[in-house]
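Progress note, sequence design subtask.
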């Protein structure tokens, strides 16, 4: 089903497990509305270059922006100050030991210029199921026995789709991100999907590529 939006048509999803072509997304990258957050639909979305992003009082919104922000693992930029942090042994990396807590922290951490969170209870439940099925994973920064930072995302094999990160201690989320990239590079992952441009991601070496190029990597 579609609704005219000027030069583009906005697709409304139903119970059928399908998405419209990503090329039909509008200029902001909005592709479709509705559907559900079943693990089958979520996996299909990520495999197709699509991700959900919506507020608590909104219908489910599905996005496929062009250009796409990605990081090629071999191009990660580590500043001199972060190299000192990495050498200091202040943090240790753990994987998938506190996935739900990482999501909760990402949802509640205060961010400049942002009110509320898009990580709703509905999203938490959906990604916990994805985690149980082995798709959604967390990389965590620990300071002693305390979880102080981390990130989570969806692992597609050769591509890791980052979703959100948090930090309760300076540099903790950067540490988790950098160490995750090191792990994935050793496993010959081709890229980390960062979705949309931020200065923070750009400072770590992320760059924009066309949606077509991104889809080619997924295939």
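Output:
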């Amino acid at each position: 089903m579609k609704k005219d939006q000027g030069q583009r048509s906005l697709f409304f999803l139903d119970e059928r497990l399908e998405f419209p072509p990503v090329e039909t997304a509008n200029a902001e990258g909005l592709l479709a509305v509705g559907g559900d957050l079943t693990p089958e639909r979520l996996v299909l979305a990520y495999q197709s270059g699509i991700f959900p992003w919506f507020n608590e009082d909104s219908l489910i919104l599905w996005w496929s922006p062009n250009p796409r922000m990605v990081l090629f693992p071999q191009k990660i930029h580590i500043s001199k100050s972060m190299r000192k942090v990495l050498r200091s042994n202040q943090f240790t990396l753990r994987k998938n030991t506190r996935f739900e807590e990482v999501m909760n922290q990402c949802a509640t951490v205060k961010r400049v210029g942002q009110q509320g969170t898009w990580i709703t209870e509905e999203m938490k439940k959906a990604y916990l199921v994805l985690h149980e099925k082995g798709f959604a994973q967390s990389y965590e920064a620990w300071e002693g026995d305390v979880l102080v930072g981390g990130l989570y995302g969806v692992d597609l094999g050769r591509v890791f789709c980052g979703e959100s990160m948090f930090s309760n201690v300076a540099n903790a989320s950067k540490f988790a991100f950098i160490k995750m990239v090191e792990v994935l590079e050793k496993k010959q992952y081709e890229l980390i999907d960062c979705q949309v441009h931020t200065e923070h991601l750009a400072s770590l070496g992320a760059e924009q590529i066309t949606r077509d190029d991104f889809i080619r990597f997924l295939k």
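The chain has two domains: 2-65, 69-218. Work on this subtask will continue into the next period as scheduled.
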